[in-house]
Design brief:
Order of helices and strands: EEEHEHEHHHEHEHEEHH
Shape: globular
Distance between the termini: 42 Å
CATH architecture of one domain: 3-Layer(aba) Sandwich
Number of strands: 9
Bound molecules: adenosine-5'-triphosphate
CATH class of one domain: Alpha Beta
Oligomer: single chain
Strand content: 15-25%
Structural class: alpha/beta
Radius of gyration: 18 Å
Number of helices: 9
Strand order of the largest sheet: 5-6-7-3-8-9
Largest sheet: 6 strands, mixed
CATH topology of one domain: Rossmann fold
């Protein structure tokens, strides 16, 4: 098991960001974490990475603590607002990640996979939004981690970058690695995830393959996952099964 979350809750004042979450993720799985704004995705991811402690419950990565897994170089993460070292270049950030991990990938391979070969010497503060996101992906990938955690990874990427990104993710998972990503682009979850977990108000409201999530939502095969998502997270929404 790559990830085992048991009875995890986290509150911020009166807000229950994550509410008694149970979640196990097998090694080699590509899992999408979906949910409306404020559903608790980033909070859950922070706890999985050991960046924030749960109020109650436990998180295990590879049957140990998240901090131990991160220290052992088993985890790579791409966070939404990951800041960069000022003045460093794209190549520097890849080299930095490589230096932190015991089994890093080859620098040129990482640059190529992230679509950054031509930008290797560019300063990070001179990158466009989508390029900076690719640099964050390169940083997450460079250490060759067993678990990649990606919080809204493709949000600013253009179409070509997005396609290359998903090809890289699928090929990384095909090597036996585990990938957990959050997204609001539900078609990406539909196309690229083996398993989808939908959160609403900090709780799991659906968990399964894209087809199983549609069944749970009561929408037909062929109806967009958006409709299933809306039905699961806002029960007043029509499911598209009426006609
Ligand atoms: N540091 C914080 N202090 C107070 N409230 C917080 C904090 N972090 C998150 N929250 C609240 O916890 C809830 C869950 O937030 P979280 O960022 O985990 O949601 P999310 O599913 O990632 O949302 P989004 O899709 O908008 O990124 C929200 O109501 C948010 O306002």
């Amino acid at each position: 098991m790559a990830i085992r979350v048991t009875g995890v809750s986290k509150r911020f004042g009166v807000v229950r960001a994550v509410d008694r979450l149970d979640l196990s993720v097998d090694r080699g799985c590509v899992m999408a974490l979906l949910g409306p704004n404020g559903a608790g995705k980033t909070t859950a991811i922070s706890m999985m990475l050991g960046l924030a402690p749960p109020d109650t419950g436990t998180v295990l990565l590879y049957e140990g603590s998240p901090v131990d897994a991160v220290r052992a170089g088993r985890v790579g993460a791409m966070l939404q607002d990951g800041a960069f070292v000022p003045g460093a270049t794209v190549r520097d950030v890849v080299e930095l990640a490589r230096a932190l991990y015991p089994r890093p990938l080859d620098t040129d391979r990482v640059l190529s996979v992230a679509g950054l070969t031509g930008l290797a010497g560019r300063r990070l503060d001179k990158l466009s939004g989508g390029e900076a996101q690719r640099a964050r992906f390169a940083f997450a990938l460079a250490g060759g981690p067993e678990l990649l955690v990606l919080d809204e990874p493709s949000a600013a990427m253009d179409v070509a970058a997005r396609q290359a990104f998903w090809t890289a993710v699928r090929s990384y998972a095909a090597d036996g690695n585990t990938v957990l990503f959050s997204t609001h682009q539900l078609h990406e979850a539909d196309e690229h995830a083996d398993r989808i977990v939908v959160l609403a108000a900090g709780r799991v409201v659906a968990d399964g393959t894209p087809a199983q999530v549609r069944v749970k939502a009561g929408v037909r095969e062929g109806i967009s996952l958006d409709q299933a998502f809306l039905a699961l997270t806002d029960p007043s929404t029509p499911t598209g099964t009426e006609q």
